[in-house]
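TL;DR need structure tokens for one chain.
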Amino acid sequence: MLRLSWAIALGAILAALTGILIVTGDLNKTEEIFADGVAQAKKVDATTDEALAASLELPAAKDALGDGLPEVVGTIGSLEKARGSLGTLAGELQTLGGVLASADRPLGEIIGSARGATGAAGDAAAPAKEIVGTLKQSNQRIRALKPLLNETLVRSQHIEAKLRWLLLLPQAQ
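>> reply
TL;DR here they are.
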């Protein structure tokens, strides 16, 4: 019986030690959870402080919203007017698109004619160059004739003066 009582005592001691180890492990986990809860509570406390500080600014924000509301309504009115203007502009742009589409063929013809005129102008460049050369030569010849014409003018004036003198003299019979 002594052995049995020792075995029961040893089993009770082992059971008590195992229970103490389990409780100690649970206490360790509980302490970690509690420490995490304290950290979370500090975060909630800081967030609450920020929320309270922000709530003190709500009346000013409410006043600002009240003051800005007429401007928002005015902006909405302006946007409605702009919408109407844009609708009118869209209609006029459609009309312009139709006009431009109808002008496409005549513009193509004008472009074709312009290309033809450009070709003709290119063809006329050589004769025009010859004409310019001829005009330059004529200009040089005219400049060469200028002194001769001046001399002729002087001589004709001289001859005219002599003829006038001769008219004044008596005539011989």
